[in-house]
Design goal:
Blueprint (H helix, E strand, L loop, with lengths): L6 H17 L2 H7 L6 H9 L18 H13 L6 H14 L2 H13 L4 E3 L15 E5 L2 E11 L7 E8 L2 E7 L6 E5 L9 E13 L5 H37 L1 E2 L2 E2 L4 H29 L5 H26 L9 H14 L4 H14 L3
Parallel strand pairs: 1-4
Antiparallel strand pairs: 2-3, 3-7, 4-5, 5-7, 6-7, 8-9
Helix pairs in contact: 1-4, 4-7, 5-6, 5-7, 7-8, 7-9, 7-10, 8-9, 9-10, 9-11
């Protein structure tokens, strides 16, 4: 059995790595720290075809799969690229999979070209992924009116379209909302790394149903799995980049006449981080492959996200601790990896949340 990446997957990763290396310069990253969205980089990704990489060819994309998508996300995370790929790519795939012809014609071309940003507004005040959203939708003639609050919406302050799960009298459904429409209030939330996260308040805002009314639960599960996979892939890149940065620093920073990497406590922290990154890598590709093959991947996706969250926590703290005072300099590279890694740790639920999900799934299996 061959577990090697295909030539297409390798080429996608190499193209992404080249773009991020050229565009994510220290000056550009410092500027982006004030708002974690580089529009010039976003346009470049669109021009290169990376934003539509996994969108079916019939919808204007390249028709590649989740493994290629994860490949570019890992490269993005490695340089903490200021681009909302983690939310945009799965939202675009959901629109391509479940949207009608009019919805796709209205939003997919811009999503693929880089003219617009799409995101999913899943989390609410007390739950990362609520089974029954407190946000509600009611019919008003031919329209749907949504009321409620979505918190910690990734790229919420720069998005042109929101995918919003809501509860209806006929079950859960997913709606498309334009954040500039009446009844939608987008409030940027201050995050230490400048991420374009927002709170979205809905007061009888008009939404368009995505898919069929009875398909809501299945669409949400489909979307959350891909959002979790994307978050795990980006976080894997973040911890790889953080570990590389920290190992290089430990080789050159000297104390007591020798590099700090030669001290046992430091080398053990770095070795533990290396092992954790390898575990995250294995879990990510197992989950991505199963999803791509149409196999049940519920436990595998949750496991990948759990490893990503746990490794993100450990490596983020190792990065700051080994860098010492430099690590808490908010203008420094180490601090950027720390804050981006910590945000990724809790997106869609951290280690404990994922462990609970896995435990509940295993407990429900017949003996």
């Amino acid at each position: 059995m061959d577990f090697s990446f295909t030539e297409t997957q390798t080429d996608a990763a190499e193209l992404a790595a080249t773009i991020f290396k050229n565009e994510c310069t220290p000056d550009r990253l410092k500027a982006a720290d004030r708002g974690r969205f580089d529009r010039a980089l976003w346009a470049k990704l669109g021009d290169a075809g990376l934003l539509g990489l996994s969108v079916p060819e019939s919808a204007g994309g390249s028709g590649l799969g989740l493994l290629e998508l994860c490949s570019i996300l890992v490269e993005a995370g490695r340089l903490v690229a200021p681009a909302p790929l983690v939310s945009h790519l799965p939202a675009t795939l959901a629109l391509a999979a479940f949207g009608d012809d009019a919805q796709q014609a209205a939003w997919l071309p811009g999503a693929i070209s880089g003219e617009t940003v799409l995101t999913a507004a899943i989390a609410e005040e007390r739950e990362h992924v609520p089974a029954t959203p407190t946000t509600t939708a009611e019919r008003d003639g031919e329209s749907w009116l949504l009321t409620g609050v979505k918190s910690v919406v990734p790229a919420g302050s720069v998005a042109s379209l929101l995918l919003v799960p809501a509860s209806t009298s006929e079950g859960v459904a997913v709606f498309l909302l334009d954040p500039t429409d009446a009844g939608v209030t987008v409030t940027p939330q201050r995050i230490s790394d400048g991420s374009e996260v927002a709170r979205v308040d809905l007061a009888r805002a008009t939404g368009t149903l995505l898919g069929g009314l009875g398909d809501g639960a299945a669409i949400i599960e489909w979307l959350v799995q891909r959002l979790s996979l994307a978050a795990s892939a980006y976080e894997l890149g973040v911890v790889r980049g953080a570990l590389d940065l920290t190992a290089a620093y430990a080789k050159t920073r000297e104390q007591f006449g020798r590099p700090i990497g030669t001290f046992q406590a430091v080398s053990q922290r770095l070795a533990d981080g290396y092992i954790d990154v390898l575990g995250s890598d294995l879990m990510l590709w197992q989950a991505a492959w199963r999803l791509e093959e149409g196999l049940d991947a519920t436990i595998e996706v949750a496991s990948a996200k759990m490893w990503a969250a746990d490794t993100g926590h450990k490596v983020a703290h190792t990065t700051v601790h080994v860098h010492g005072g430099v690590g808490i300099d908010m203008d420094g590279e180490a601090h950027r990896y720390f804050t981006v890694g910590k945000l990724g740790e809790f997106l869609l639920g951290g280690t404990t949340d994922q462990a609970r999900t896995i435990g509940a799934l295993l407990a429900a299996e017949p003996v």
